[in-house]
Design goal:
The N terminus is likely disordered. The longest helix has 14 residues. The two termini are about 25 Å apart. Helix content is about 5%, strand content about 40%. The protein has two helices and 31 strands. It is globular and about 90 Å long. It is mostly beta strands and about 750 residues long. It has a 22-stranded antiparallel β-barrel. A three-stranded antiparallel sheet has the order 28-29-30, with no helix packed on it.
Length: about 750
Amino acid sequence: MKTKSLRKGAVALTAAATLLPATASLAQEAPKLQIGGTTYTKWLYGNTRQQGAMYNFTTIPGEGSGDNGIGTELELLLNARLSSAVEVRGRIHSRFSQNFWSNFGGFGGNPSGPCVNGDCGEFDSRSNQYIKLRGLAVTLTPGYLIDSATIGANDFGQFDPYVVGRIRYIDRDNAYGVLVQGSALDRKLTYDVAGISLPRLWAGPNYKTGAFHTTDASYVFQAKYAFNDMVDVGGIFQYAIDNELEIGDNNVDNGRNLFPRFRNGVGGVKAGVHMGSVLDVKGSFYRSYMHAENTNYFGTDGNDPRWVPKSFGINGYSPVPAGKHEDNTWKVDLTLNDPLEIGLSLNVQGFSIGADYVAIMAARRESDVLLTEGHDASFAFPGPNNAKYGVFAGNPTAIGYGGWTNETQQVATLNVDNEFTDFDEPLAETAIGWKGVTFNPVYSNGALDIAGEYSFITYNQNWQAWGNDSRSITDTQYPGAELDSGVLHNYRSAYQPFQDKQTHIAVAKARYVLDLGRGIDVFGKFKYIHDSDKRLNDKKYLPYQDGDCPGGGVACAGVKRNYGTDANGNPLSTADFYGNPDLVTREGVTGYKFKPFDDISDDDRVLNYSSFNLGAGYQLTDDLYTSLSYTKFLADLQDGNTAFQSYNLHQMVSGKHDKNLVSLKAKYILAGVEFGLEGQYLFGTYTPDYGTGFVAQAADEKISKDHGVTVGSLGFTNRYGGWNPLETRSFEHVRLKAFMKAQF
């Protein structure tokens, strides 16, 4: 009926053309609506038997994660061309989240339950197969004054990932705002200006934008001018403001005033010099300012959404530090494109990202702001098996022993987002504080491609006592998140109280196509990481006086050592966190429950990490491609001893790690339907080595039940009561992800 009406309207307009010539063009621009879509079905299988959701990983309470289940989602793509100057687009999208096939549509359920595993059924949007509007936007191209204006949803990827990046929160077009783009001087000058609503879910202190959020916004302007083909310059500025209602202003007759809860400004300049096809040089410099309200204007009640934390203890969580901070970030890239004409090119990058650099709208994932590969994603969370707080009972692995299997991507924010990801997806890691240089040679000759990397990285937050001797180490403006307490870099941990760290990364990888049959792809990679961190490097920060724990079964005296005083003259000591051990006895031997922290080497970290990969792929048919690969991961790590205890919060990781991965991949395309599969078999061992100076304890029945260890196996209990096993651990995991994607 609608189509018929449109046709009748077009005829009427044509008939009236002789009387109204100005409307003749409308007859040729009848609105056109296109509807397309995608169905996506995912199969997950794993022998850890978790079924919290249809994703392998999340840190969001109540969302759930899992490695078993089948789910389907539907996406309808709508596009309407109203005229040559107006276009409307949108999506209607379901989300499987906890919508397993076994839910049978999500009926029933218990709304008072934990709402994971699909238990809430029809009473919860995570499991009732809801349909949601996403990505709605109107784009105007008037043909004068501006090039285009987009009102509504956008991924805002046209800006700069250091300042305003492509933002994904489940989808890439959840952000809404107004974007105006234009040009002048024969397009030598281009500009983009936008106002973007701040995401209330994470764009402020404590991952919130307070109670009054509807007017919170980020404003951004960027421009670029190309003098000629050789030289261009640009600039960008962003200002984000999170306002709340002014306390005490209850007179609505003249409106109500606002008070800033959080402000963030970032300015940047960029330039490029392009010397033909051989030499390319680009540079950028950024300066950021942030101020999180720090006068207790909104009170001290942590349950108040307006509350702004003033301190994060030893391991707090927030996408920004507390208080006021300013810092700089810069990057220089040089590319030599085959200067000797032998197929050899070289990329070089120097960089420094400030420890206090804050850009609340910077890219959180799916943008790689540095040239280096960074760390492997296989060990990206605390503990030997990627278990957050796994030293305590009831904390299973979050992503499994295998971790993620793709390379890492570096982002210039604390606000890293790896939520709702599976093991085969890229992992983002924070690069806040990183500074160094990367060399990346690339060689290509016919069927052979070779690439390498050497990176040296040190850190702008190499400091003692969070860089401030006048505050306790348990009273800091910096959110430590999980701290750096895993085999490799914990992906969202930029800060720790004591750090004196350097990292070396070396990579060599190659691919060659053998001229056999359809061509066999042979590929391999070697990666080496050497990481050293002295952490606490000054004796004055040791918690207790020399000889405080004399040994020989004699209890510690508990005489604190002070490293300074606070603003009120109170003494400061690391003994506020690193308490002394009690005495324990096993098999007639009495000694300390863990080693006393009496030497600055007790928390030193030295890592030698290697990974080796070899595989081959083959196009079996025109539609089917498969590959098989093997990867070995070896980590020889000394990460402190029992005096340090991985900040008392996580499983210790000192010792030797041997992980093996066999991976089978397949991709099949058939007339609009795509199938994909990756199956993995993981096996290996972890042999702990936590040093000496303590008496090991034997696990009782409670420890066995809480931590999955054998009764009588050896370990030690740390300061907070968590259990660290000392026995060699073996693991064997199977996991699989398959999908079907049909487009229509």
